[in-house]
Amino acid sequence: MNMTLLKALIALVPASRLLSGSAILFSRRRGVSTFLQQLGEGALVVVVLTHVSKAIHLFPWMNWGLEDNPGHYLGLRSAVLGLTSFPIGYLLCALTKRHP
Questions:
Q1: Structure confidence by residue, pLDDT tens digits, 77-100
Q2: Cβ atoms within 10 A of the Cβ of 87, count?
Q3: What Å distances lie between residue 74 and 21, 46, 86, 95, CA to CA?
Q4: Among 34, 9, 10, which Cα is nearest to 24's?
Q5: Which of 79, 68, 9 is nearest to 46 (CA)?
Q6: Helix or strand holding residue 37 (H, E)
Q7: What is the pLDDT of residues 20-42, one digit of tens each?
């Protein structure tokens, strides 16, 4: 088995669990903080799916593995979006949480 595919499939498990957890949180408590968490997790799942696509050569026209290809920039932008919006949303959620 391809190591890139194995790593991507392993990373898909926690990413999809976090995505489902943030979706449940968003459905119960709608707000900017939960939306940012949902957006960030969705972006991180896109990063993992780009690695899966790269490993199985799903879109050969994207020239996976080469410098300056569309898949590289898709993964990079999704990673930046996910690694900024999810922690900001989590922090906002923690700061605005009402305690009884």
A1: 999 999 999 999 989 988 887 543
A2: 13
A3: 24, 8, 18, 31
A4: 34
A5: 79
A6: helix 32-55
A7: 988 898 888 888 888 999 999 99
